[in-house]
Design goal:
By secondary structure, this protein is α/β, with parallel strands linked by helices. The protein is built from twelve helices and 13 strands. The model has no long low-confidence stretch (mean pLDDT about 95).
Amino acid sequence: MMMTPQRTYRIILIGFGAVGQGFAQILRDQGARIATQTGADLRLVGVATRSRGSVGDPAGINPATLLDALRHDGDLRRLPGSTSHTPHELIATLDADLLIEATATDLQSGEPATSHIRAALARNMHVVTVNKGPAALHLAALRREAAVAGCFFGFEGTVMAGTPALRLALEDLAGCEIREVRGIVNGTTNYILTQMEGGMEYGAALAEAQRLGYAEADPTGDVEGFDAAGKAAIMAAAIMDTPLHPDQVERTGISGITGMAVAEAAAAGERWKLIARVWRDASGVHASVQPTRLPATHPLAGVGGATNALTITTDLLGEVTLIGPGAGGIATGFAILSDILALHRQQ
């Protein structure tokens, strides 16, 4: 059996929350297999966090050591290579091939993630981001900057986590004219609506989603549709090649949906879903996020719990529906891996 030639990727990871830890878990558990199978030897050389310390080591940082330190100490400050460097200082000083941007999303400014990405591109580093802010607000500009730098810019994880929604549209359906994309792109709201179908009122379903970690203490971004609007803006820019600011996405959340409304829909053979929709017509490209009653026979209507789904309407294939996890540390960590392997295939 022929051995796959290996290429080493020295990686700086900015952000070590659920997604950063999910990626580290993948490297810890599957890194050796991935290197053997694909030839991509993925080596962390820097990790920066906002409040739990930063680490830099050109020789490489064992992901198991990072995860153990976080579990035992709550931060990274006691590790060899611990540093007071900010993310920008790590990017400026470490010799790395790739930046992973996994900090918290800001859909108004896209910061600090956009500045991290631009600093990495200025040093000719490839970039993978799972942060929705830069992709929703500056996708066209960042793609141009990456092209000028001769670098890869991956953002698959910004929509539906590791489920390859963007790659399906941009690569596998590249020969089709895509006329509309619509789907369930926020697992929190889908979970709440599913629980309401079982008889819960909105408040109780939201509290259950918070207890399980699906919803934040302040759930506004999810339940009022801001998260889905950011993803709709990304899909408009990436799939329809038309930049739309998230504020340009017509948006209504689910907080006004009552148990009675859910019951009335069920009696009519329908289900409520929060649907993000991007479509093209004679006047241009448009996007919306709104609660929608779907016939129970529609592929999106049968998607329950925190699962995401997207239906892509094309000229040649008609409707293509993709269903899969849209959140979670491992699922989004896999999105990072899939982008890195897409880069590796281009080398």
